[in-house]
C-alpha cells in the first residue's frame, strides 16, 4: 500500500489535530493549557462543525480530563487528549491508573517547563517527572514526525498484544506553534493503515468485567510485573507499526536515530527538536575535520537498551544533553538512563552530561560546539561525577 499524500503548510498543533481526525477518534476530553491549547481547540471546532464524529467533553481540569478519558476508553471508544506542564502534573495521579487498567488512550504532550518560577516555555521537565507512569513514550523532532507518530500511536496502543496508553512528546512552541511544510495523508490511506477500534476489554452491562480493582499485597507485585513485561514487550509491536508506516510513506523511524555517526569518536545525544539544531553544529564540526556525530533516542519508554548500545559502540565519548534537571541527584534523567544502559558493557565510552535549554533558553549551534570542547577536555582528564548546567550566568 502506498500513501496518497498532499503537501501543505500548517501549524504543527493543527497537524496533530488533523492526525487525530484521520484516526477517527471517537472521544476527546481536554482542558486548555499553553502551549497545547491549539490542538484541542481545533479538535473542538472539528466536532462542533461536524468534521469529526466524536464526543468532545469540556472538563474543569486536567485531572478531570484524564478521568473522563478513562471512562470513555473503558466504554470502548477510541480516545485522545492533550496537555502540558502543570496540566500533566495535575493528571499525575490518574496517569498511573490509566496504564494499570491497560487503557489505550493516546495523548499529545506539548513539553513545557514546570513551575517555579512560572515559565510557559519549553523544556522536558514535565515529562521527565512522569517517566514511570507505565505509558509508551515517544519523542518527535519536527512537525512531520508529530503528525506521523500521532496516527501510529493509535495503532500501537490498541494492538491486542500491547493495550497500553501512549504519549507523543513534542516541544512546546518550538514545534507546536511553528508552521512547517508537511505531507498529510488522505482518509482512505489512514483507514487502511488503522483499522476500526475493537477493544479487547470494555465495560458492558451485558457482560460485566471489573476494572481497576483493589489488590492485596499477595497480588500487587504480580500485577506490576505483568505491566512491566507488557510495556517492555511492546517494543516489538512498535517496530512493526513503524516499519509498516515506512512502507506506506517512505518515512522510516528507529528507536534510536543516528546522524553522521559513521566513524565518529565523539557523539552528542539528545531528544526532541534541539537535535535538529545540533545537526547544524555537527555538520560544521565535520567540515572542520572533527570526528563528531549525533545520536537521537526516539523511544523513551520502553527504553531501547540494545539500540543505544549499538549506536555508541564505536564512540570514545558520549555527551548527553538533558533538558531537565534531577534536582539533588547526580545526573539528569537522560544521562542517568544512558549510564545505566551502558554500565554492563566491558567496553564503553566515557559519558558526560550537560543540561541545556531550561525554561526555553535559546541554544544555538555554537553552544553545542562549546559543549563538545568542554566535554572533550573533561574526558581527557577523566570524567568526574559533576554535572554541568550549561549556560548559567556567572
- Proportion of β residues? 15-25%
Mind telling me which CATH architecture of the largest domain this is?
3-Layer(aba) Sandwich
Unreliable parts:
none
Largest sheet: 7 strands, mixed
- Mean pLDDT, rounded to whole units? 95
N-to-C series of helices and strands: EHEHEHEHEHEHEEHHEEHEEHEHEHE
Q: Structural class of the secondary structure composition? A: alpha/beta
The amount of helix comes to 40-55%
CA-atom Rg in angstroms: 21 Å
Would you kindly provide a written description of the structure presented here, covering whatever features stand out?
By secondary structure, the protein is α/β, with parallel strands linked by helices. It has two domains: 5-249, Rossmann fold (3-Layer(aba) Sandwich), CATH 3.40.50; 256-389, 3-Layer(aba) Sandwich (Rossmann fold). It is built from twelve helices and 15 strands. Strands 3-2-4-5-7-6-12 form a seven-stranded mixed beta sheet, with helices on both faces. A six-stranded mixed beta sheet has the order 9-11-10-13-14-15, with helices on both faces. It has a two-stranded antiparallel sheet with strand order 1-8. Strand 14 (350-355), helix 12 (365-380) and strand 15 form a beta-alpha-beta unit. Helix 1 (12-22) crosses helix 2 (37-49) and helix 1 runs parallel beside helix 6 (143-158). The protein starts with a strand and ends in a 5-residue tail after the last strand. The model has no long low-confidence stretch (mean pLDDT 95).
Per-chain topology:
Elements: E1 5-11, H1 12-22, E2 27-30, H2 37-49, E3 55-58, H3 62-74, E4 79-83, H4 85-100, E5 106-111, H5 125-128, E6 136-139, H6 143-158, E7 166-171, E8 179-185, H7 187-193, H8 217-249, E9 256-259, E10 266-269, H9 274-287, E11 292-297, E12 299-301, H10 305-311, E13 317-322, H11 333-342, E14 350-355, H12 365-380, E15 388-389
Parallel strand pairs: 2-3, 2-4, 4-5, 5-7, 6-7, 10-11, 10-13, 13-14, 14-15
Antiparallel strand pairs: 1-8, 6-12, 9-11
Helix pairs in contact: 1-2, 1-6, 3-4, 6-8, 9-12
